[in-house]
């Protein structure tokens, strides 16, 4: 339960940053996906069931606060969560660089699914601009994860000591 | 049941749930009770963050402009008396501004009832081009309503809660607007393009469209009133199959600059023609 308080707080801060302040630093199209980093981090830090539930809930929140149809990001984040969990189990991604590269890859997958969904809905033409869009967004998300993941680790450690939650990672 | 199978089953159920929600959602998105609750929770935070961000930005800009200006301190003191007088004028102007904003709520340059709204947040993910405004269904805002600014068309309302709504921009590929060129009177459908601007599609091959031509709404899509400025043609090319012309259009509104928008509260049908009349022609 106390884990969800931490996730809820991080989600609120992340949502506020993404919907207000982040646009000051870079074009809205290329701003990093903080929630994806959060979902990835939750996957390697907490129990499987808790992280899966969080991934689904985070996706639903993203659906509400973006132009996406409800359910799209809930599905995407669950797929990314299970894929990253599998990669972590196989390759033991303990280094920060490896994790950042995984986040970068996950953003590419997320972008491709979003664009595919929009293409199936018949609203866009896939061209070089979209490739550029996905790659730049993945790059910004991957770079931010280099800062965000250690920050989340520190916050989590502090929070764990404060409320007495077991540290898994 | 083994733990790994159980965990996999949970994730598959969640993915299945997401897909069920995704494909069972109605075509016209209005937002349910969950949307309303989430929007109601987040709105005050977004409003406070936006205001705080503006203040910090102003303070920072003020600090930067003052660096290196100490030598002008004496001159500034001499100007202080004059500035005090101007301050009084500014206070008067602020009061006047508030009054005018209230008036703007009641009467606009259009004949349609409209409402001024402040932008309080932008699309959270960035894969879509949208933003959030501080007006909702409690003030008469509903899905599919047109949103404009002083310069021209901004977008339309997609999701709506009691005190907050989401506006999809015309630069998003999902939004289509029926448009007309002022000079040639040719009609086309405007979509957002991946490059950031807009594309006017399905123009007649014989059209005399040129760079610099102004694009306005035709009023035939039952969402946007007729004659609202949309943008200017930047370049013209043939469409993918060579059956139509396509024009790259630069929107009249700079979406990164606007802070307030106007929602047209009219019914989303019949601005220009009776619904269905165009089909009968």
Quick description:
The complex is a heterodimer of chains A (169) and B (281). Chain A is mostly helical. Chain A has helices spanning 2-25, 34-45, 48-64, 72-91, 96-120, 128-163.
> What is the H-and-E element order of chain B?
HHHEEEEEEEEEEEEH
Total beta strands of chain A: 0
Termini gap of chain A:
18 Å
Q: Major β-sheet of chain B, in short? A: 6 strands, antiparallel, barrel
Rounded mean pLDDT of chain A is 87
The computed structural class of chain B is alpha+beta
Oligomer kind:
heterodimer
Number of strands of chain B: 12
Topology-level CATH name of the domain at 176-253 in chain B: Thrombin, subunit H
Strand order of the largest sheet of chain B: 1-2-5-4-3-12
Helix content range of chain A = over 70%
Q: What is the element string of chain A, with H for helices and E for strands?
A: HHHHHH
How many domains of chain A? The number is: 1
CATH superfamily of the domain at 176-253 in chain B: Rod shape-determining protein MreC, domain 2
Secondary-structure arrangement, i.e. CATH architecture of the domain at 176-253 in chain B? Beta Barrel
**Bulk shape of chain A:** globular
Please count the helical segments of chain A: 6
Radius of gyration of chain B over alpha carbons? 24 Å
Parts with pLDDT < 50 across at least 5 consecutive residues of chain B = 268-281
Q: Taking Cα atoms only, what radius of gyration of chain A do you get, to the nearest Å?
A: 16 Å
Biggest sheet overview of chain A: none
């Amino acid at each position: 339960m106390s884990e969800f308080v931490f996730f809820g707080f991080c989600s609120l801060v992340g949502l506020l940053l993404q919907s207000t302040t982040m646009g000051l630093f870079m074009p809205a199209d290329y701003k990093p996906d903080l929630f994806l980093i959060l979902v990835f981090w939750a996957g390697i830090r907490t129990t499987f069931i808790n992280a899966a539930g969080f991934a689904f809930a985070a996706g639903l929140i993203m659906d509400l606060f973006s132009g996406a149809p409800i359910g799209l990001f809930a599905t995407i984040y669950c797929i990314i969560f299970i894929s990253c969990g599998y990669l972590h189990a196989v390759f033991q991604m303990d280094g920060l660089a490896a994790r950042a590269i995984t986040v970068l890859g996950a953003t590419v997958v997320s972008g491709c699914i979003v664009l595919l969904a929009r293409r199936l809905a018949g609203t866009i033409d896939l061209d070089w601009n979209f490739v550029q869009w996905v790659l730049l967004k993945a790059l910004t998300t991957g770079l931010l994860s280099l800062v965000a993941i250690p920050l989340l680790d520190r916050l989590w450690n502090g929070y764990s000591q404060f409320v007495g939650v077991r540290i898994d990672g | 049941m083994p733990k790994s199978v159980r965990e996999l089953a949970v994730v598959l159920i969640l993915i299945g749930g997401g897909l069920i929600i995704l494909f069972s959602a109605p075509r016209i998105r209005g937002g349910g009770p969950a949307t309303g609750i989430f929007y109601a929770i987040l709105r005050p935070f977004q409003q406070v963050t936006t205001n705080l961000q503006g203040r910090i930005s102003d303070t920072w800009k003020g600090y930067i402009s003052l660096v290196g200006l100490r030598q002008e301190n004496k001159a500034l003191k001499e100007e202080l008396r004059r500035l005090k007088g101007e301050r009084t004028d500014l206070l008067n102007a602020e009061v006047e501004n508030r009054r005018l904003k209230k008036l703007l709520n009641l009467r606009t340059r259009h004949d349609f009832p409209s409402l001024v709204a402040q932008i309080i947040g932008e699309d959270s993910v960035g894969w879509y081009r949208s933003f959030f405004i501080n007006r909702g269904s409690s003030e008469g805002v509903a899905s599919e309503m047109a949103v404009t600014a002083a310069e021209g068309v901004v977008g339309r309302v997609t999701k709506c809660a009691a005190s907050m709504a989401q506006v999809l921009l015309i630069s998003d590929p999902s939004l289509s607007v029926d448009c007309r060129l002022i000079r040639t009177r040719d009609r086309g459908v405007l979509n957002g393009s991946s490059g950031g601007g807009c594309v006017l599609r399905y123009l007649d091959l014989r059209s005399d469209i040129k760079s610099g031509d102004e694009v306005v709404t035709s009023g035939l899509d039952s969402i946007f009133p007729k004659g609202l400025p949309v943008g200017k043609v930047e370049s013209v090319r043939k469409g993918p199959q060579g059956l139509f012309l396509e024009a790259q259009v630069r929107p009249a509104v700079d979406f990164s600059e606007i802070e307030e928008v106007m929602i047209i509260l009219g019914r989303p049908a019949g601005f220009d023609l009776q619904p269905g009349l165009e089909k009968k022609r």
